[in-house]
Amino acid sequence: MMNFVLAMLKYPDVQRRAQDEIDNVIGKDRLPSFEDKEQLPYVNALCVELLRWQVINPLGVTHVAAEDDVYCGFRIPAGTMIMPNTWAMARDDDLYPDPLNFKPERWLPGGSSFNSLRPEEYVFGYGRRLCPGQVWAEHMIFIAAVSLLAVFNIEKALDLKGNPIPLNEDHKPAIVRLLGPSKCAITPRSEKAASLVRDIAP
Ligand code: HEM
């Protein structure tokens, strides 16, 4: 979710566009549900772009070649450690023009990456050790993103003088990419939004 919050802080126009779509499709009287997914193309595109923009395990998971192999003219002896450079794949500007920027619209029909390799096809790994949590993760990203956007504004926190506090975009070098922390202000979009949250609070 750090990736989601960072994207919303850095790209307020994306946040507004997603909220407009949610307001138009769902209205403001209820929380979103999985049944709304098909009617929210921009929110879905935002979730795909989240997987691409800040790959959470940039070098995938290391495997070892079980037997001698040749790939694209390179000899790979048995026992070689193999790390997929998922980070580079997700930043390939042939597939994703302007790759460093968070642009959900690239995944919409007619968008610059609409026909490109989708991040779901490689950020979860490959073959028989493919991530078993993929479907669950994609559903959780959708429902968390759409629910938060429906009821909250995510903005930069202000310091005591009222100036926005700069984001901390550092990450810790680790197998799993950990961002931040950054201060932010997450506030209900309206009194009605606040009451929807209170209604489901335990
Ligand atoms: C955005 C979220 C996630 C990403 C990007 C991700 C990515 C990956 C990747 C790249 C692998 C290595 C696949 C390979 O060896 O080729 C993997 C393995 C695995 N993932 Fe995930 N994962 C995510 C979420 C989850 C979740 C939510 C769960 C559990 C509910 C999960 C459980 C596992 C397990 C158990 C493995 C090891 C599978 C094996 O070695 O047989 N992952 N994941």
TrEMBL record:
Keywords, comma-separated and alphabetical: Heme, Iron, Metal-binding, Monooxygenase, Oxidoreductase
Spans through the membrane: none
Coiled-coil region: none
Annotated positions binding heme: C131
Keyword Hydrolase: no
Cofactor annotation: heme
A family per Pfam: p450
InterPro entries registered for this protein in UniProt: Cyt_P450, Cyt_P450_CS, Cyt_P450_E_grp-I, Cyt_P450_sf, Cytochrome_P450_fung
Family in the record: Belongs to the cytochrome P450 family.
Name of the featured protein: Cytochrome P450
